Structures are given as C-alpha cells and as structure tokens.
C-alpha cells in the first residue's frame, strides 16, 4: 500500500530535519574544508598574476625564449591550474563527497 501525500511530512519540515542532522553537518564541513582552501589558493594565484601584469611589466615581458614571455607562460598556467582544480575537485567529489551525500539521501528518503 503506498502512502498518500497527506501522510508525508511537509517538505519544509523534511528539509529542516536534514539540515539539522549531524550527518549533514559533517557533509557540509567536509565540503567547506575542501572548497574554501582551494578557492583561496586559486584566488591568490589569480590576483598575483593580475598584480604582476599591472605592476611588474619588466618581469612579465621578460623573454624566456623566442617571443615567449614570462607573462604568456603564467597566463597559460592560469588555464592549466583551472583544469587541474576541476579535475582534483571531481576526483575528490567522486571518492569522498558524493558517496557520503548519497548515503545521507538514502537514509533520509528511507525514513519517509
């Protein structure tokens, strides 16, 4: 026998229960411990590049070989670091975060 919509708890109450659960707090904490440092690292790297471009013209225009300058190499490394951060995040999420989130979702949906 299936339950009727009247038997289900209000949606807002269900969300509040999940948000207040220790499992959700741990999940949120794991996410923040990974994302905040990674974001800070990337922003520091990005702003360092911008500041070097604005104030260190001689350094950024230094020719490494041919017409390849320090600024060009550092600019290309911005793209490399963006892809690397994305790959690191996806790998971390697949191994750590997603399994914990799925377990929490199964537990919460099983309670209904």
TrEMBL record:
Region (Disordered): 1-20
UniProt keyword terms in alphabetical order: Membrane, Transmembrane, Transmembrane helix
Organism this protein belongs to: Luteipulveratus flavus
Residues passing through the membrane, by range: 34-56, 68-90
Name of the protein this chain belongs to: DUF485 domain-containing protein
Pfam families linked: DUF485
